[in-house]
Design goal:
The chain is an alpha+beta fold and 193 residues long. It is built from five helices and eight strands. It is globular and about 55 Å long.
């Protein structure tokens, strides 16, 4: 009986698959929600990742870290603000996302003042902040292979999961509906246990 339920569930999910610009979207909500809103939330995430891929080089021209006169790493807060504003210009990022990352950059700026570092990758700056990867080009190259599902958290919040081609690696994206449009509040990467 359980086998039959599992097969029906898989069939239901596959019947609700949508393809937008080559991105596979499983428009299935595991919570009580509006599948149209789930689809819009997924479109926001998939659209943002595509926007990020198109603008990746320009966005990452911002020099978030510099070396001071003692050759120690320091955080350039103006560059961090410009980096976040450029991400926000995508139209997909919420003020909460910007605030959270600005708090992170401020805390790292304070950290480097008292914890001098001059070698190796600067602590906390050894990965792409959007993709949470030390190999963002590999992830960007494979964006079209992501498949998405959406889970309703509340009427105005969703959690979109972007499944990668790598076992157990998935993006967990929290969204909030602001002025009738979905915005990304948080992106994390769930790695294998």
């Amino acid at each position: 009986m359980m086998y039959l339920i599992h097969k029906v569930f898989i069939l239901f999910i596959s019947l609700n698959s949508v393809n937008i610009s080559g991105v596979s979207i499983n428009d299935f909500s595991t919570g009580k929600g509006d599948n149209n809103e789930d689809k819009k939330a997924i479109e926001c995430v998939a659209g943002f990742f595509e926007w990020y891929k198109s603008n990746y080089r320009e966005i990452n021209l911002h020099t978030l870290i510099y070396t001071d006169s003692s050759a120690n790493f320091q955080v350039s807060l103006p560059a961090c603000r410009a980096y976040l504003q450029q991400l926000k210009s995508s139209g997909c990022i919420s003020d909460n996302y910007v605030t959270m990352w600005m708090q992170y950059f401020n805390s790292k700026a304070e950290y480097f003042i008292t914890n001098h570092q001059s070698e190796g990758p600067p602590e906390g700056f050894d990965m792409d902040f959007v993709l949470h990867s030390q190999e963002p080009e590999l992830v960007l190259k494979n964006l079209k292979m992501l498949t998405y599902t959406s889970r309703t958290m509340s009427q105005n919040t969703r959690e979109v999961i972007g499944y990668t081609q790598w076992d157990d690696w998935k993006y967990v994206v929290e969204l909030k509906k602001i002025n009738k449009k979905w915005h990304i509040d948080y992106i994390s990467l769930k790695e294998p246990d």
